[in-house]
Amino acid sequence: MRLTLAMVGVVGLVGVVACGGDAVTPEHPVASAQPSTTVATPPRAPTVIKRVVVSLSRKSGTSVTTIGPDGEITVSLDVLENGRGPHTDATLRLAPDGTLAAFHATGHHEMGTPVDETFGRTSNHATWKSHEEHGDQDIDKPAFFMPVCDFPDAVGMLASALLKNGGKLALLPSGSAAIEKTIETDITSKAGEKRHIVGYAITGLELIPTHVWMNTDGTWFGSISSWWSVVPDGFENIVDGIVEKQTAIDRARDKAVADRLARRPVAAGIALTHARVLDVEHGRWDTDQTVVVVGDTIKSVGPSATAKIPAGAEVRDLAGKAIVPGLWDMHSHLGDDAGVMDIASGVTTARDVGHDPDKLDDWKKRFDDGSAIGPHVIRFGFIEGRGEKAASSKVTAENEAEAKAAVELFQKRGYEGIKIYNSMKPELVPLLAKEAHARGMMVTGHIPVHMLANEAVRAGYDGIEHINMLFLNFFADHDTDTRTTKRFTLVGEKAATFDLKSKAVTDFIALLKEHHTVIDPTLDAFEDLLTGEQGKIIPGLENVVSRLPVQTQRQFLTGGLPLDGDKLTTYRASYEKLLVMVKLLHDKGVTLVVGTDSLPGLMVHHELALFVRAGLTPAEAIKNDTIDAARAMKLEKKTGSIALGKAADLFVVDGDPLAHIEDLMKVQWAMRGGVVFMSDALYGTVGVSGPR
Question: pTM value?
Answer without folding.
Answer: 0.92
